[in-house]
Description:
This protein is of the alpha+beta class. A 3-stranded antiparallel beta sheet has the order 1-3-2. A two-stranded antiparallel ribbon has the order 4-5. Helix 1 (4-22) crosses helix 3 (40-51). It has helices spanning 4-22, 29-36, 40-51, 69-72, 104-113, and strands at 26-28, 56-60, 63-67, 77-79, 86-88. It folds into 2 domains: 4-70, Orthogonal Bundle (Arc Repressor Mutant, subunit A), CATH 1.10.10.10; 75-116, no CATH class. The chain is built from 5 helices and 5 strands, in the order H-E-H-H-E-E-H-E-E-H.
Amino acid sequence: MKRGLKSSASEIRREILLLARLNGGRLTDEAITGRFGKIDSVASVLADLLKKGIAKLDVQENRRVYLFDDLQAGLLLNICPNCGNYYPVRDEIENCPVCGSDVKMHRSALAKAGKSKTIDGGHDTGVS
Ligand SMILES: [Zn+2]
C-alpha cells in the first residue's frame, strides 16, 4: 500500500518548519535545496506554506528567501503528539488540524515545561 505523497509532504513540511525555526524564521532557497535536493514535493509544500500565509517569499540579494513570521517572532509552535504536525500556539485550537487528535492537554503540558525557559529577542510591537 502506498501512502506516498501525503505522508512525505507532511514530513517535508515538518522538516522545513524545523529548519526555519533553527534559522530564526528565515530560509534561503539554497538551504532548502541543500537539505532536500530539487524535488517536486518540496516545491509544492513551499507553495502550500506560501498560500496559507505561513511563509512569505522575499528576494534578497537575488536569492529567494522564505520568511516565517511566526518563527521569527519567537512564537512557539506546538507539535501534535500524534502526527507531528506543527501549528502556532496562538491558534487556540483543541484538535490537531491534520489528524484531529486532542492537543489541548499536550499544550498545557508544554506550557508548564516551557516556564523555565525565557524567550529572548524582540517583542513584536503591535501589528497582528
Ligand atoms: Zn495531528
